[in-house]
Amino acid sequence: MITAEKQGRNLVLTMEGVDHPFVIRPLPGHAGRQITDTYLATMGGRPDVDLLAALQMAVDGAILDGDRWAPRPESEQENFTRIGMELSQDEAEQILMPAFFWQTILGMDGVRAYIEGGEGLAGTLKASGALSVRLGFLVPRTSPSSD
Length: 147
Prior knowledge:
The protein is an alpha+beta fold. It has one domain (2-134). The chain has helices at residues 29-43, 51-60, 78-86, 89-103, 108-116, 120-134, and strands at 2-7, 10-15, 22-24, 62-65, 68-71. The longest helix has 15 residues, at 29-43. It is globular and about 40 Å long.
């Protein structure tokens, strides 16, 4: 079980049973768009994109490397290192995914969708659906109007 709150410009994720919260700093907008594109490509089945790098950037920030954003050096990946050393894989998802959705155009709406959707796979599907709607990939169907 996690809780999330925005403190200043940061997202603070607190996990039940873990002593210290995870503080997630915002990415620059272009880096956020890049990790969103990477995530959407993986959802579309593209095997040539690096989702792990996108998640590393979501929790620890990014540096500009030429014309692409890249994860910070390992020595600067405080959250990602903590996640790998302190949490199970299931618990890691509960930090990585809300951090990712927060870095997208959804912001806190994405974090809330993930948590209220039940976290884990169910929460990811709920937040992914919200992201798809926001980006215009899924257009809500309405009944044709009758004149």
